[in-house]
Design goal:
497 residues, alpha/beta, Immunoglobulin-like, TIM Barrel, 3 domains, eight-stranded parallel sheet, six-stranded antiparallel sheet, 25 strands, binds alpha-D-galactopyranose
């Protein structure tokens, strides 16, 4: 019996489709809606509240919310909830997103009280690629790009202006002066523009007279600057420690002063402590009002260096330094192993781009960097030029399954269970009782390992397993799971309870 080619082709496509239904993974703006994390958000009472509901799926999407507390309203076409809540408490809201393919529902907990940032921050920062060459146009274009490429709908909502938005000298009126060549309409204009699109704005200063780049810092003017930031509508302050004394007590005092100044504005401003881990901020930054704190010197665009220093660093060096600090991380207070370098590929204007220590990573190394930052419950602040990304970089930054691990509400930083023979195994417990397991190949050879009871005594290796980069459900044999790691690969699995 003869069939026409089209019928045969149809059956081939059908069979391939049927044999791996779980592998199907659609782009951010295709198919049914899916509401992405975070599923919990913190805000101070009587302080402006803004939350964009990150949602994948074909547009148009219409959102609705059941149980919104008094004081909040939802723009059902923009997906933005805003307003002000007076009373502290946890408000559980049921969110729905509808499009022509179907409907998605998720619960969002709005936690009104003293805590912010109940999952790690996600967004973008100007420093790693652009250094001092940041402008209003760059920031607005970045926001538009993050809407188009789907980053905002995967939860990347902070857009952070780093060093060099300000002039070197404080104004005669006692206020920091905005560099008007770069920001001709001021910072408030940028904040309003971002807020209208559901983003939040971060800014940068330093606990000394001068920032790392040598422009005006906030030391001695903390209250004035915090008030200005709040009036402009700033949502996050990264506070650096250049030109300040290398003394723990002084650092605690200076960060506490700014922490209090921010808190007393009663705007929900996240406080990022950027002391690079030299004075053990994990032991004091939270009390100083910090929501996350750097644990290492600046990341460079490279995999590894054997000369770790202030001016040289690599993804792997940072992983090793951040590993022992898991116990200090939790909702509202995170270790910060610095921003992502995914996709920079040697094109940084700030990280000594032409020198040996900013040579770039391979796509595999960038993917492993992303995996490990997700596992370590680290801030996911991309630092590449998101206006011009290749498809591999987009795929690395917008994998919803890896992001869900990072944004899990339990807020645990993964613990390293194995570190030998060129590879590491890490475990991150998740809210629903599952565990994320990462197997990281640190070196340039293929490594074959077996995940079994000896390696993971506390986990159920024979149950359902999800491979979060393959987007596939898999099963281990009774003896365990054979894992073959290509050079520098990090495989990440979720082991169901
Ligand atoms: C320090 C910080 C970096 C960046 C620069 C800006 O080095 O650690 O992240 O903010 O300052 O000058």
């Amino acid at each position: 019996m003869k069939y026409p080619v089209s019928v045969i082709l149809f059956f081939i496509v059908f069979l391939v489709g049927c044999s791996s239904p779980e592998k199907t993974f659609l782009g951010v703006y295709e198919g049914k809606p899916r509401i992405n994390p975070p599923y919990i958000t913190g805000n101070y009472p009587e302080s402006p509240f803004l939350f964009y509901i990150p949602t994948s799926g074909e547009r148009p999407v219409v959102w609705s919310a059941e149980g919104l507390p008094e004081g909040l309203t939802l723009d059902s076409e923009a997906g933005i909830i805003k307003g002000k809540i007076e009373k502290a408490g946890n408000y559980v809201v049921v969110l729905t997103a509808d499009n022509k393919h179907g409907k998605a529902m998720e619960k969002l907990t709005i936690s009104i009280g003293d805590n912010l940032l109940l999952t790690p921050p996600m967004g973008w920062n100007s420093w790693n690629t652009f250094g001092k060459n940041l402008t209003e146009a760059l920031v607005l274009e970045t926001a538009e790009a993050m809407i188009k490429n789907g980053m905002r709908d995967l939860g990347y909502t902070y857009i952070n202006i780093d060093d060099f938005w300000q002039l070197a000298e404080r104004g005669k009126d006692g206020h920091i002066q905005i560099n008007e060549e770069k920001f001709p309409r001021g910072i408030k204009y940028v904040a309003d523009y971002l807020h209208e699109r559901g983003f939040k704005l971060g800014i940068y200063s330093d606990a000394a007279d001068r920032t790392c780049g040598g422009v005006c810092g906030s030391y001695g003017f903390e209250e004035t600057d915090a008030k200005d930031f709040a009036e402009w509508g700033v949502d996050l302050l990264k506070y650096d420690y250049c030109n300040a004394p290398q003394d723990k007590q002084v650092a605690i005092e200076r960060y506490t002063t700014m922490g209090k100044a921010l808190r007393s504005t009663n705007r929900s401003i996240v406080f990022s402590v950027c002391e690079w881990g030299q004075l053990e901020p994990w032991t004091w930054a939270k009390e100083a009002g910090g929501h996350y704190w750097r644990t290492t010197f600046d990341i460079r665009d490279r995999w590894y260096t054997d000369q770790y220093s202030h001016s040289d660093n690599g993804v792997l060096n940072i992983i090793d330094l951040n590993a022992p600090l898991a116990q200090y991380a939790g909702p509202g207070a995170w270790n910060d192993p610095d921003m992502l370098v995914v996709g920079i590929s040697g094109k940084s204007q700030s990280m000594n781009a032409n020198e040996e220590h900013a040579i770039g990573c391979t796509p595999e190394q960038y993917r492993s960097h992303m995996s490990m930052w997700a596992m370590m419950a680290s801030p996911l602040l991309s630092g590449n030029d998101v206006r011009n990304m290749d498809s591999v970089t987009i795929a690395t930054l917008t994998n919803p399954e890896i992001i869900a691990i990072n944004q899990d509400m339990l807020g645990k930083q993964a613990e390293r269970k194995v570190d030998k023979d060129g590879y590491q195994v890490w475990i991150k417990p998740l809210t629903d009782g599952s565990s994320a397991v990462a197997c990281l190949n640190k070196i340039g050879n293929i490594i074959d390992i077996k995940l079994d009871k000896n390696v993971l005594p506390e986990l159920n290796i024979t149950g359902d397993i999800r491979d979060v980069w393959e987007h596939a459900n898999i099963k281990a044999k009774a003896e365990g799971l054979d894992v073959s790691l290509s050079p520098y690969e990090c495989k990440v699995y979720v082991l169901k309870k």
